[in-house]
Amino acid sequence: MRLLEVKNLKKIYTTRFGGNQIQALSNVSFSVEQGEYVAIMGESGSGKTTLLNILASLDKPTSGEVYLDGKNMVTIKDSEISAFRRDNLGFVFQDFNLLDTFSIQDNIFLPLVLAQKNYQEMSSRLQPLSERLKIEDILKKFPYEVSGGQKQRAAVARALITKPKLVLADEPTGALDSKAAMNLLKIFSSINNLGQTILMVTHSVAAASHANRVLFIKDGEIYNQIYRGSMSNDDMYQKISFTLSVLASGGEELE
Amino acid sequence: MNKFFYPKLALVNLKKNGNTYIPYILTCIGSIMAFYTMVSIHSNKGLDQMPGSMNLKTILFLGIIVIGIFAVIFLFYTNSFLIKRRKKELGLYSILGLEKKHIAWVLFYETVFVTVISLSLGLIGGVLIGKLLFLLLLNMVRFKSPLIFHVDYWGLLITTAVFLVIFGLTLLTNFLQVKLANPIDLLKGGQHGEKEPKSSWLVTLIGIISLGTGYVIALSVETPLEALLLFFVAVVFVIIGTYALFISGSITLLKQLKKNKTFYYQSRNFISVSGMIYRMKQNAVGLANICILSTMVLVTLSTTVSLYIGQEGMRRDFYPLDVSIIGAAANTDFAEVITMIESEKDKSNVRSKDEISFDLARFRAFQEGSHFLRDMVENQATDALYYQRISNITLIPLDDYNRLTGGNKRLAENEMLIFSVGDNYGEATIVFGDEQYLITEQLESIPMDFKKTQDMVTPTT
After folding, report:
1. Tens digit of each residue's pLDDT (9 = 90 or more) over B294-327
2. Is the pTM of this model over 0.90?
3. What does B140-155 look like in DSSP terms, one character per residue?
4. CB < 8 Å to A97, chain B
5. Where are the domains of chain B?
6. Cβ separation of B92 and A99 shorter than 8 Å?
7. Which residue numbers of B have CB closer than 8 Å to A's CBs?
8. Residues near B261 by Cβ (< 8 Å), separated by ≥ 6?
9. How many beta-carbon contacts under 8 Å exist across A and B?
10. pLDDT for B196-250, tens place per residue?
11. ipTM > 0.85 for the complex
């Protein structure tokens, strides 16, 4: 089943006083199936973040359409967009974005509190999640008291607790050391195995090599994609590295 | 939808951000207390029955305006500081599912709570402190009787209204911040790369000019009556000038330093100048606030202290003698007056010393160079400069003068000795109406000790 469908997405930024126009996305089309784990790679300035912002409904494209579960996110009304985001999307950020004024548990509850769920439901949702993410021990602590890896796991819990259709992750391993990053990627793989659809934007080859599919974006267009098929993570790693070096050298000869 | 959701969330936010909101609320309470105290003293009914209350009231009224302006600036500054710190939180709310409308509600309730808390505590504190200050004022002016302290409902109302408007405006700016920014910006708000601060020559120039104007006005004021109104103008100018100079002037200066390459690219200056530019951007308003506050404290302290200490001197100038008895020449029998005084003294067992007596004529006149005109005195224009040119003139016969000083001065027809309070009377002649007198001598002192209050002239008889 097709969960996310992106058609002919185009985004042009105009500086405030007219003048310069910057084309961030020129023509992007792809789709994501239910239960897929997709990584998007590209150099900085290639339009990754713009794409993610549009998929997160934080930004509007200049033209093109984005369907999530058959609903067009581009034409959705401003007044409904927050609720739509809350009900359908989960976010994991590079710098966690946990609030220092709340305990880890309250941070995880935040989206449910904003959705005005009752406490019984919140805690019944948290219980299995915190076990799976191994954060039971730090629930009562505050973000500044725990390590980066623990913070990011808490942020993942916050993204998952609303049972979103799609989790969007923006450089989730960017601020972590390699051990914590590996740990987080294992968690991503395991929640993906449980059926969670994940879309991740990343620089890191190691992070991308855990995905089922990697999309490469260059100059605002999808340049290439790699399917895992039966490849192991290591093979995947090799292939991604190769594609990236071809991409960097401008490579016309690939496929 | 639970209708208590937003108030609850607002309350949680205030609690969680307590370490920034408590100082903010304290600031609000302080401003409200100061404002209410001034308003309540100003509108106190008992004040009307005090001599010179008009002047006191005018000063208090100007004080209210200054405190009001200051409260606006101060609260806006603190509020913008707070909302900047909370941008990440608000952005996260927005991404995790609160619409801007809902965030606005949360902000609204937060403001309502802050307003209710600080207004109620501020007014209670204001009533108490107001009472204390009022007693202090009573003690200082040493004026007993009709001043009774009461809770001033009118003052409560005005203070509430003024601060509701201020809080409303801060809320509006917060709304605008949320409305204009999209969630990504809010989320990144805290870590946004700082833009190089803008500076404008125009604002700097305005700052220099208004600061200069303020001080020139303050220093060039000559008469107390003028001072009353001009002082206020000067204060406003100085406030504007200080803000403009701190906000724009400092950065203009630093940018000029930066342009000077040989100066800028030295290890010492390189870091301090470029760092200062950003620090000034963040702290200009705060530093300006501190400057203005300390200037105000200095001015207030020095004026009140010098006024208070000068009281005794002023009293002595106005009333050099313990008792003075003045009679009108036409219908007073002076021998009879002296007998009366002596008998009264005997009756109440009072002794007297340093008695002096002399004939005098007193009038007020309007000075035009060496001409003193009596006619224009009746023209009661309230221009401060007009009062400045009015002299009190006392004429004393030469015989009495010589008797009291034991001197032996001689004067021809149309000649005078002159004693002038304050500046020396510079002219060689003096004219009253049609009659011109030649001045033979400027006296350094006179035994009557009128000192500061009257011009004094001794004519021939």
Report:
1. 988 888 888 778 877 877 777 776 677 777 777 7
2. no
3. HHT--SS------HHH
4. 88, 92, 187
5. 5-192, 359-460
6. yes
7. 1-2, 5, 9, 16-17, 88-89, 92-102, 182-184, 187, 191
8. none
9. 56
10. 667 788 889 999 999 999 888 888 877 666 666 777 788 888 888 998 888 888 8
11. no
